[in-house]
Amino acid sequence: MDPSSTGIQEPFDLIRLSLSERVFVKLRGDRELSGVLHAYDGHMNLILSDVEETVMIVDAVDGTLEGQGTVAKRKMEMLFVRGDGVILVSPPSRM
Amino acid sequence: MSSLQGYIDRRVLLVLQDGRAIVGVLAGFDQKSNIVVSDCRERVYSLDEGVDEIPLGLYLVKGDMIALIGEIDDAIDQAVDPSTIRAEPITPIRY
Amino acid sequence: MLIFSVFKTLTDQRVTVELKNDLSITGVLKSVDQFLNIRLDSIKVLDEARHPHMMAVKNCFIRGSVVRYVQLPAEHVDTQLLEDATRREAANQSKR
């Protein structure tokens, strides 16, 4: 893809082009979100709808690697996400 | 400032970033939410015994350390016997 | 500024604020400022049995920096308006 044809010149352009599409968001504290992106700002504060949150709960029992832990999922209709917790935003995979 | 003005001279509950709960009378604040609280008492929660109150005196608390400030309804507060409350301390803030 | 404006349009609506200490507080949004500090009225802490600390608190000020999420009333959010405003703000940002 030629960057000039997609209009992507800087990182935030990638997020701008994901508006009204489903995105994947990785957050601090072993949390992940999938939701439809409706707004963002320069702090990476986000507003998402139809959100599913996945929290990875790792039981730190004697530091073994096989204790994969459990995941907790929940759904939220409309969610503001504070930008300081955002690690990455991934646009929808385009087929 | 999402103003603290309404809390001046009121009894408030202060929840700090490290999870400490302090009650006192809000004497003043500034735009960075640094606050001055008089007649401070720390409320120590535990699962083994009732709530312990430790008098601390006059505090100036830096805004960065504050998680939440709540106005205390004295009628409700006085109606509960702190020695009967069993609870874990509030979890510290984790970024 | 955009997000600040969104919160201002939601004044007097019920929201649920989830803090970075895992406390969830539902209440009526009374005001918000440029730091996204939030004032809530008629608050209720989720799982009050585990969190009796705020029993006597009916309204509170939450520091913006300790907020993880705010669950918003979807029926009061115009998503088309949000996306247009976000594109407009992004365009202004890149001009600078």
Major beta sheet, strand line-up of chain B: 4-3-2-1-5
Instruction: Note the overall shape of chain C.
Output: elongated
Oligomer: heterotrimer
Termini separation of chain C (Å)?
16 Å
Structural class of the helices, strands and pairings of chain C?
alpha+beta
CATH class placement of chain B: Mainly Beta
- Secondary-structure element string of chain C: HEEEEEH
Please indicate the percent range of residues of chain B in DSSP E strands (runs of 2 or more). 35-45%
What's the alpha carbon Rg of chain C, rounded to whole Å? 15 Å
Question: If helices are DSSP runs of H or I spanning 4 or more residues, what is the number of helices of chain B?
Answer: 1
Function (chain A): Binds specifically to the 3'-terminal U-tract of U6 snRNA.
Subcellular location (chain A): Nucleus
InterPro entries (chain A): Lsm3 (IPR034105), LSM_dom_sf (IPR010920), Sm (IPR047575), Sm-like_LSM3 (IPR040002), Sm_dom_euk/arc (IPR001163)
Pfam families (chain A): LSM (PF01423)
Short description:
The complex is a heterotrimer of chains A (95), B (95) and C (96). Chain B is mainly β. Helices cover 6% and strands 44% of the residues of chain B.
Written description of the protein model:
The complex is a heterotrimer of chains A (95), B (95) and C (96). Chain A is mainly beta and 95 residues long. Chain A has one domain: SH3 type barrels (Roll), CATH 2.30.30.100. Helix content of chain A is 11%, strand content 47%. The longest helix of chain A is centred in the N-terminal third of the chain and has 6 residues. Chain B has 95 residues and is mainly β. Chain C has a 5-stranded antiparallel sheet. Chain C starts with a helix and ends with a helix. Chains A and C meet through strand 2 and strand 4 of A and helix 1, strand 5 and helix 2 of C. Strand 5 of chain B pairs antiparallel with strand 4 of chain C, so a sheet runs across the interface. Chain B: One of its GO terms (molecular function) is mRNA binding. Chain B: Pfam families: LSM. Chain B: Belongs to the snRNP Sm proteins family.
